[in-house]
Amino acid sequence: MRLVTAVLLLVVTAPLMAQDPVDARGWINRGVAEFKSDHYPQAIAAFQQAVESDPSNAIAHLYLGTAWMQQYIPGADSPDNRAAAAAANQEFLKVLDMDPRNSTAMSYLASLNLNQKKWDEAQSWYEKVVAVEPRNATAWYSMGFIAWSRWYPAYSAARKSLGMRPEDPGPLPAGAVKEDLRTRFWPVLEGGLNDLQQALLIDPQYDDAMAYMNLLIRERADLRDTAEECRQDVVVANTWVDQAMATKKAKAGQRGGGMGNAAPPPPPPPASGIQVGSTLGGNVLVRHVPPVYPPEARKTGIQGIVHLSAVIGRDGRVKEVSLLDGEPALAQAAIDAVRQWVYRPTLLNGEPVEVRTTVDVDFTLRQ
Q: Could you read off the pLDDT of 232-265 as tens digits, one per residue?
């Protein structure tokens, strides 16, 4: 059997010999530099050296898992690809052994299993994510996607077995095929719809969630008892299509503002939120809780700016925080701090409104 990991590390060992770091911190810094330069095999080798230098360093394991995950190609079935997925999985589990509530590692494990179409495992990890981060819209949406992914192959096969074309109207004719689908998948469909609703409560502009609401409701219509019940589901599904298209159009308008005069904001989403295109000024921040620098990140010299997306409620309190970009080792500390911030409420026509904004959290090591 070909030892993929050993061969890969052997290939990239030679470039690492010159001026090798002497500790885990140095190897992590080298790995981050290689990763940012898209030199993933070299990054893997450096992070591997970091975990060997300090096996208890959770950040080193997190970065090593992330680098292996970057090498994984969804849908490609090869020994190298399976080895990359297994290596990433192993490192993220080690992170959770040291930090059981590390939502970054949980999210990566969920995504890794989803991309391998391991629906049960992915579902389980996303459930763990929302237990730690109940307002993680991406996790809720992903569980809705998993529900559809489980259901659709059986649904498509059932229609084909009944001689029905995709464009043929429902519902499915009464009989064993329909009853089997209803028994096996009705709870799956209802669960998926609930998950997507949760995602949309958190982010009313989540157009991908709207698209899967349409699919699940439209396809669930085939399990209804009467043509009228089926038609009513289709009407509801069509409203989700309209909402998704309107939201995509609004977002495209925001991105198309160009460098000239700012384009007017899109209409507010159903929950009356508005999008703020730039970071809220410091003059409206009335309670600032500084982030706690993660000890392992400080020890290994990791610093930088973490970019977050935040939803500020009508009362000025932060309702939702999600990661846009930044060092994974610093992300959770930034999120935990921003969740405690309080802003002066934003007024629109004299009334307080919910806003979405971006927040930059700076982690700089002071001498």
A: 999 999 999 888 888 888 877 655 433 333 323 2
| Region of residue 171 (phi > 0: left; psi between -120 and 50: alpha; otherwise: beta) | beta
Amino acid at 328: P
Q: Is the dihedral of CA 344, 133, 276, 269 positive or negative?
A: negative
Six-digit token pair at 99? 């930090």
Radius of gyration of the chain (CA): 24
The whole-number pLDDT of residue 262 equals 30
| CATH, range 4-128 | 1.25.40.10
- Which of 52, 63, 42 has the alpha carbon at shortest distance from 297? 63
Q: Which residue has the tokens 């700076």?
A: 362
Side-chain-facing half-sphere of 132: CA atoms under 13 Å: 19
Q: How far is 199 from 136, CA to CA, in rounded Å?
A: 8
Among candidate residues 285, 350, 351, 283, the one with its CA nearest the CA of residue 312? 285
Residue 356: strand pairing partners: 275, 311
Question: Mind giving me the DSSP string for 82-121?
Answer: HHHHHHHHHHHHHHHHH-TT-HHHHHHHHHHHHHTT-HHH
**Listed residue (356, 206, 361, 362) closest to 278, CA to CA:** 356
Q: Pick one of 3.20.20.70, 3.40.640.10, 3.30.930.10, 3.30.2420.10 as the CATH number of 273-363.
A: 3.30.2420.10
Which regions of the chain does DSSP assign to beta strands (E)? Answer: 273-275, 285-287, 304-312, 318-325, 342-343, 346-348, 351-363
| Local confidence band at 331 (pLDDT 50, 70, 90 cut-offs) | confident
Record the pTM: 0.66
Predicted confidence (pLDDT) per residue in 123-178, tens digit: 999 999 999 999 899 899 999 999 999 999 999 899 999 998 877 888 999 999 99
Residue 107, phi-psi category: left (phi > 0), alpha (psi -120 to 50), beta (remainder): alpha
Preceding amide of 187 cis, omega within 30? no
Is the distance from CB of 221 to CB of 240 less than 8 angstroms?
no
Tell me, what's the pLDDT at 254? 58
